[in-house]
Amino acid sequence: EVQLVTSGGGVVRPGGSLRLSCAASGFRFEEFGLSWVRQVPGKGLEWVSGINFNGGSVGYGDSVKGRFTISRDNAKNSLYLQMSSLRSEDTAFYFCSRNFNGGRNSPSDRWGQGTLVTVSS
Amino acid sequence: EVVLTQSPGTLSLSPGETATLSCRASQNLGINYLAWYQQRPGQAPRLLIYGATTRATDIPDRFRGGGSGTDFTLSINRLEPQDFGVYYCQHYGSSDVTFGGGTRVEI
To answer: Quick one: average pLDDT of A43-56?
Structure first.
């Protein structure tokens, strides 16, 4: 069974940093691209970042470019999102997801449970 | 950046009816890199359709994607109670990924 378990959410002050992790199991991790998608409670979905199967290609949404960094460790079956210079508008549930192929921008066919990041003083 | 506009905002229907959801892109999507997701309350999204018309694994044929260029539709035939939720379209281009604002389907 495919599982994506997200961790690392919490409360952080504006300007602070936080690192999210996503532990994957149940599939050949190194063959699939991965994404981070966020959702303000009660609002719509926003693509945050994507990474291809080997980490050689990454992409970011305009609102996080230059502040967030996506990475993966295929030896540990793990995906990460390093978030810095956090703003109140970054407050949201963050989902990690598996893309349906090895591309960084492909649709996501499996999703984790989401972790809440709250940026507040 | 491609902007996706979904309509209507809310659709109120009864079981057995057909829902037709629209997604309009701000520019021609060319190779139809357009996907649809369902999100039920408190759950993560579920991929329904990719490539504008191809159903994802285990998605029943009651769900049908159509359209090309700038205008796309998702049709849900013979609505069932578990079909309620919010539906999002998504463009997945070579340089960016964007979501539409969503259509809420109330059963």
So the answer is: 97
